[in-house]
Specification:
Layout (H helix, E strand, L loop, with lengths): L1 H12 L9 E6 L3 E2 L15 E2 L2 E8 L6 E7 L7 E3 L1 E6 L10 E2 L8 E3 L4 E3 L12 E8 L3 E2 L2 E2 L7 E5 L12 E3 L5 E7 L5 E7 L1 H4 L11 H9 L4 E7 L14 H10 L4 E7 L2 H5 L14 H17 L3 E5 L15 H16 L5 E3 L1 H5 E2 L2 E5 L13 H12 L5
Parallel strand pairs: 17-18, 17-19, 19-20, 20-21
Antiparallel strand pairs: 1-16, 2-13, 3-12, 4-11, 4-14, 5-10, 5-16, 6-9, 7-8, 7-11, 14-15, 22-23
Length: about 400
């Protein structure tokens, strides 16, 4: 009898979709490969291995819909990844996280994700509202190396022993400041919707914003556009580069999966390149040769041609100033000159469909090599909440209505 009841509950959560389907990406965290603590100066911030544990991750979606799907990722895994059970629930009030809907995959509660693959859940009968906060809980019954993760979540999750997908997390649960498995949430909207993908590095990933408050520039932009039925998803990876690999692969290598293949994508905003300039001969890449403008321009052109081939509008954003950053070797006057040279090309070449001059927005008029103090998070590289809000206000004017 218990098995019959459980089967009925699972079946009730899966909605056959006979009407028109309007799937659009409503939330995203780009996966990338974990590194060993010995091969890179930054810690991963997530456990190397999970086993018989539940991971609960918090998200705030952009647009709402009648049904939802959850996307998990094993993109950089070298072995199959077994999901014992997964649920999605409303995150607020906190007690709601102990309930929610069981996710199924081809009608099954448990699924194995092949190496290198994503896994998209069945559509679930859980209407979600624009800007709603959700909790996704995943139980891993077997020893699971976290080879695929996302470094900077700006939202705090939790890890606890046992299968707690349908229960409250204990007070002593381990805090999770990155992301372990969750890479996307799609929604089925009542009318066709479109998505804007923010493609960038730590400035897009939201470093310097207040954690757990949804104050990245993509969050502010989502709040502005949700009422118009336009989704905003974040494909930023801290440390990402146009041409280098480490904290995520190079831009062209992930552009297809993280941008072009997102359901409903109509516009991409590219704000990337500062790490290509700053990393060489810094503590992050002490032996790398200095970057050149020609190499960076060639990388931008590859993104432009790929977007145009898919009829996706691509907006270029100039790189903001970064003098004063305490990262050893990251800033030099020569590197700033290169930033300004590339910014001139972004603005004057007319190769992007539109250009948002984020440099002009954020720089200090009294010292153009530095960020305005009001917009600076304090590290002189990343904006703070006020800076991200200003960026969203600026970028909103470039989104087609």
């Amino acid at each position: 009898m218990k098995k019959l009841i459980a089967a009925a509950l699972v079946a009730a959560a899966i909605t056959p979709l006979h009407a028109a389907e309007n799937w659009v990406a409503s939330w995203q965290a780009s996966p990338h490969a974990a590194w060993s603590e010995q091969e890179f100066v930054l810690p991963t911030g997530v456990p190397a291995v999970l086993e018989r544990q539940t991971v609960r991750e918090m998200v705030r979606i952009s647009v709402g819909g009648r049904h939802a799907r959850v996307v998990l990722s094993n993109r950089y895994g070298t072995q199959p990844l077994v999901i014992g059970e997964a649920r999605i629930a409303r995150a607020e009030p906190a007690a709601a996280q102990a309930h929610g809907v069981v996710l199924t995959f081809g009608g099954q509660r448990s699924v194995t994700i092949p190496p290198g693959a994503p896994m998209v859940s069945d559509a679930i009968a859980m209407p979600v509202e624009a800007l709603e906060k959700l909790a996704v809980s995943i139980y891993l019954p077997q020893r699971t190396p976290l080879t695929t993760f996302h470094w900077g979540a700006q939202q705090t999750g939790a890890i606890a022993d046992g299968n707690l997908t349908g229960e409250a997390m204990p007070a002593n649960a381990q805090a999770l400041h990155g992301r372990a498995l969750l890479s996307g949430i799609w929604v089925n909207t009542a009318t066709p919707a479109s998505a804007v993908v923010a493609f960038g590095d730590s400035i897009t990933d939201g470093n310097g914003s207040t954690p757990d408050m949804d104050r990245r520039w993509s969050d502010y932009l989502a709040a502005r556009l949700a009422k118009k039925g336009i989704a905003v998803v974040n494909a930023g990876i801290s440390g990402a580069r146009l041409l280098g690999d480490r904290m995520g692969v190079n831009a062209a290598a992930r552009f297809e999966q993280d941008v072009l293949s997102q359901p409903g994508v109509s516009t991409a905003i590219v704000l990337m390149g500062i790490n290509d300039i700053g990393w060489p001969q810094s503590i992050f890449a002490p032996d790398e040769a200095p970057m050149t403008a020609d190499r960076m321009i060639g990388a931008y052109r590859q993104l432009i041609v790929q977007a145009r081939a898919r009829k996706i509008r691509i907006i270029g954003a100039t790189m903001p100033p970064f003098e004063g950053t305490p990262i050893e070797g990251y800033y030099t006057p020569a590197k700033d000159a290169l930033r300004q040279q590339v910014n001139r090309w972004i603005k004057e070449s007319r190769e992007f469909d539109a250009v948002a001059d984020i440099d002009a927005l954020l720089r200090d008029p009294a010292n153009p090599a530095r960020m305005r103090p009001h917009y600076d998070s304090g590290d002189h590289l990343h904006p703070g909440d006020a800076g991200y809000a200003a960026m969203a206000a600026e970028l909103a004017g470039y989104i087609n209505q």
